[in-house]
RNA sequence: CGGGGUGUGGCGCAGCCUGGUAGCGCACCUGCUUUGGGAGCAGGGGGCCGGAGGUUCGAAUCCUCUCACCCCGACCA
């Protein structure tokens, strides 16, 4: 392809509204343009990258026995009402009314639609297992679209759904998808980590996320990894063993109220009383589905709202504002405590149940209690793991034996796999006849790969200060030929020759035939980030040589004009 | 939805406070020169200043309403 025959509108300045480097590069290098908040046009280079990555996904899905179909993007809201998700995911669904005032939904995921399809079609265990997938545009009415394609309102996703007759078969289907995912990302040149994840609105019995680890601002998720074993989990889900547990033989001391003037934060209280934050208990007031709850965790910990939401089984969870806290406790924020607290049920974190003689707010301005004890001074209605892991804590899997520790990294989620169990098949009445002659619900799985977000994640992972550095498998073209002056007959002839030879050899080649200055072309070549650049200039051509350089490497190979195919092929083999 | 901010030519911005009929850099067009990392000179095209209403002799500028977009938060792949 010649540059002037396609459309690559590069920009010298990045549009001001792009935050992430990957988002800026997509705009600057002429891959995407914004149409509305979170809605993007994919320009020719992007189109090619998306097509290449989709093809990899398609090949690996097919190889894993999945069957490609296309379901409609538009669906009646009725199917969502049937599964019960109309209410739980409603806030993020793109909804509209047709001319008959029927409410429709632009799909963000297709569990309901695929389950509707299967119901009544698949009647026997003999027809199972089955795995159906599609690659298409998805819609989510994001509360706040941002980061370009990473949080868009319209995006492209591969979604697959498995139906199995029993748990054992489901586990096999699930494992097949996990393996296919590793192959997909490896082929795309991306190192991904599989981590345990919360199931969120999707529901079901468990989930994993596939993460591209980055050290840039684009890392949207925090993930914990063990340094001794392969434990890995999203912070939403990660558990850990306390590295400094309290003394279990400590004797209970008498409750004592003390003055703590102006000490409303953990730092202030620990500073004032000269005690460790581990001897404090934070009492946090939340509103869960309209009811007030008090949540107690140790002073040195962070509450994990995802875990709390799961623990309470709440649909809506929000931290109480200062007025609500004052109304409930009778004291300003910072002095809430469990002793004598009325109007809110108390839930405590597991760690707190082991703690004795801790310090709590007294529900009174400038006052705390010393030596509070669970059971003696107050009661809780629920207990569970409610706090987030933190760096340096012991691994929940191997920490007890080998002393493995957890360390966090930032990642971008590019794929996910859900063990849905029978959540949808039961609620939507999707059943088959088992070998025992009895009706039973399908055991389902759901598996997503974000096509557009993976492309951006690759850029967030692979770039430098000059531009994108594509992995070869998802680069829009493999080679860019840059004749420094295409108007010069000799350079033009050499460029055309290299172009036709590389093209005949089967490489995707882009030839920059623009009448631009050398500097502009070289900078644009670095910007759009094709794996290999062939530079053709007067100086080396005089010796019958052309220059071949990998975008990711600094050294350049001076090759003779005739060897272009050979050198390019050899160089490509070595590239990621 | 709460808080903050911005809308001026394709992109990046100044002008607004203190009203007088729009400017800079890049990009674009023409010509000449130039040609190995974002050229030089000369000439040129393009903006009803997001929209509506108001104040005023006069509004990009002041006031009201509205729309869009961005950032922080909640939410989320």
Count of discrete alpha- or pi-helical segments spanning 4 or more residues: 17
Structural class call reads alpha+beta
For the terminal residues, how far apart are their CA atoms?
A: 23 Å
The second-level CATH architecture of the largest domain is 2-Layer Sandwich
Name the CATH class of the largest domain.
Answer: Alpha Beta
Unreliable spans: none
Overview in brief:
The chain is α+β, with helices and mostly antiparallel strands.
Structural overview:
It is a single chain. Helix content is 28%, strand content 29%. The model has no long low-confidence stretch (mean pLDDT 93). It binds one RNA strand of 77 nucleotides through β21, α15 and α16.
Key words describing this protein structure:
576 residues, alpha+beta, BirA Bifunctional Protein, domain 2, YbaK protein, Rossmann fold, 3 domains, 9-stranded mixed sheet, 5-stranded mixed sheet, 17 helices, 31 strands, RNA-binding
């Amino acid at each position: 392809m010649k540059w002037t025959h396609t459309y690559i509108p590069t920009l010298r300045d990045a549009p001001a509204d792009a935050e992430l480097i990957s988002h800026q590069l997509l705009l600057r290098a002429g891959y995407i343009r914004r149409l509305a908040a979170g809605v993007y046009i994919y320009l020719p280079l992007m189109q090619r990258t998306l097509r290449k990555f989709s093809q990899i996904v398609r090949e690996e899905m097919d190889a894993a026995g999945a069957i490609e179909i296309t379901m409609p993007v538009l669906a009646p809201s009725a199917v969502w009402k049937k599964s019960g998700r109309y209410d739980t995911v409603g806030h993020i669904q793109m909804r509209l009314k047709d001319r008959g005032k029927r409410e429709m939904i632009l799909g963000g995921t297709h569990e309901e639609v695929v389950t509707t399809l299967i119901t009544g079609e698949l009647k026997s265990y003999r027809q199972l297992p089955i795995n159906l997938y599609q690659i298409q545009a998805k819609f989510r009415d994001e509360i706040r679209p941002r980061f370009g394609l990473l949080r868009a309102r319209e995006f492209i996703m591969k979604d697959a759904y498995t139906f199995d007759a029993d748990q054992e078969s489901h586990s096999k289907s699930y494992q097949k998808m996990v393996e296919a995912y590793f192959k997909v990302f490896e082929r795309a040149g991306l190192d991904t980590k599989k981590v345990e994840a919360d199931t969120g609105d999707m529901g079901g019995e468990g989930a994993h996320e596939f993460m591209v680890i980055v050290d840039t601002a684009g890392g949207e998720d925090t993930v914990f990894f063990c340094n001794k074993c392969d434990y890995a989990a999203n912070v939403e889900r990660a558990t850990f063993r306390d590295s400094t547990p309290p003394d279990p033989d400590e004797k209970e001391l008498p409750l004592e109220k003390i003055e703590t003037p102006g000490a409303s934060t953990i730092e202030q209280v620990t500073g004032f009383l000269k005690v460790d934050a581990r001897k404090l208990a934070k009492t946090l007031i939340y509103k869960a589905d309209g009811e007030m709850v008090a949540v107690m965790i140790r002073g040195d910990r962070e509450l994990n709202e995802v875990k709390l939401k799961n623990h309470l089984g709440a649909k809506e969870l929000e931290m109480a504002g200062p007025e609500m806290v004052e109304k409930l406790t009778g004291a300003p924020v910072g002095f809430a405590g469990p002793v004598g607290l009325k109007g809110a049920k108390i839930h405590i974190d597991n760690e707190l149940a082991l703690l004795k003689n801790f310090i709590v707010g007294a529900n009174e301005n400038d006052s705390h209690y010393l030596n509070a004890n669970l059971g003696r001074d107050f009661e809780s209605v629920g207990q569970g793991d409610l706090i987030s892991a933190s760096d340096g804590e012991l691994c929940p899997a191997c920490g007890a034996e080998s002393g493995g520790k957890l360390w966090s990294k930032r990642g971008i989620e590019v794929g996910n796999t859900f063990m849905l169990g029978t959540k949808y098949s039961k609620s939507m009445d999707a059943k088959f006849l088992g070998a025992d002659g009895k009706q039973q619900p399908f055991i389902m799985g759901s598996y997503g790969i974000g096509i557009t977000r993976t492309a951006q994640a690759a850029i967030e992972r692979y770039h430098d200060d000059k531009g994108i550095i594509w992995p070869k498998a998802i680069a829009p073209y493999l080679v860019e030929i840059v004749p420094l002056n295409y108007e010069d007959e000799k350079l033009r002839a050499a460029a055309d020759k290299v172009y036709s030879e590389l093209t005949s050899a089967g490489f995707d080649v882009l030839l920059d035939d623009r009448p631009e200055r050398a500097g502009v072309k070289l900078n644009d070549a670095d910007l759009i980030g094709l794996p290999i650049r062939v530079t053709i200039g007067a100086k080396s051509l005089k010796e019958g040589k052309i220059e071949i350089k990998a975008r990711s490497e600094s050294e350049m190979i001076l090759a003779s004009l005739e060897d272009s195919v050979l050198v390019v092929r050899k160089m490509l083999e070595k590239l990621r």
